[in-house]
Structure prediction request, 273 residues.
Amino acid sequence: MTEQKVFVSKAKLAEQAERYEDMSNNMKAVAQIGQILSQEERNLLSVAYKNVVGARRSSWRVIESIGNKTDEKDTQKKEIVKEYKEKIEKELEDTCLEVLSLLDDHLLKNIDAEIKKGKDAEAGSDAHTDVNTAVESKIFYLKMKGDYYRYLAEVSAKANRTEYVEKSEEAYKKALDITTDGDTDTTGKIGMLQPTHPIRLGLALNFSVFYYEIKEEKQKACDLAKTAFDLAIAELDSLNEDSYKDSTLIMQLLRDNLTLWTSEDNQDEQEES
Prediction:
C-alpha cells in the first residue's frame, strides 16, 4: 500500500469515528504529496474540513448570540464572552487559511499543470477526457476557495473582511465562468458541466448564499439561484443516475432558499452545500 493510500485509509477510518480533526490531518497529508486527487479523495478532503470548520462556525454563532444578549452593564461576562469568541475565531481562521494554502500551493497548482499537459498532448478521446476531468476538479477547488474565504469574511474585522469578500467573489466567479462556459439564458446550452451536475448546482447554491449573506445583494442571490434551478429542471432527463440523490438534494436547497428569500418572513440562516 502506497503512502497516499495509507493516509486515505486512515482518513476513512477517522470519518467513521467522526474524528474530523484526524480526518483533515490525513487528507492534508494526501494533498501535500503532490499527486492529482481522485474524486473520492477530493470529496474526503472536502468533508473533513467542512466538518472541522462547520463546528467552529456553529460555535461562533452561539457565542455571538450570547454576547449580543448579554447586558452591557455586566462587563465581566461581556469580557469573558469576547475572549472566548476570539479564541473560536482564531481556530476558525487558522483552519480556513490552512485549506486555502493547500488549494493554492498544491491542489490548484497541480490541476493547472495537468490541464496544460492535457491540452498540449495530441488530440484524442483519452486526452480530452483527462482534460475534462481535471477541469471538473478545478471548478470544485475554486468553489472551495470561495467557500473558505466566505467563512473568513463571516467572522473577520472590517479591514480584513473587505479582502476576504473580494477573494471569495473572485474564486466563485472564476468557477462559474468555467462551469457555464457556452451557456446562454435563452437556449440553456450546457457548459463544462451539465446544469444538473452536483458541483455546478453546489457552486450556484453557495455563490448565491454569498451574495445574500455577505454582500447583501439580494436580487443577485435570487437571480443566480433561480437560473441554476430552472436550468436544472429543464435538463432533468439528463440527470446522471449516480449523482441523482446529490443533485436533487441541492436543487431542493436552492428552491428552499428562494422561497425563504422571497417571503416576507426572511430568516437569518440559509442552506448551503
Summary: The two ends are 33 Å apart (CA to CA).
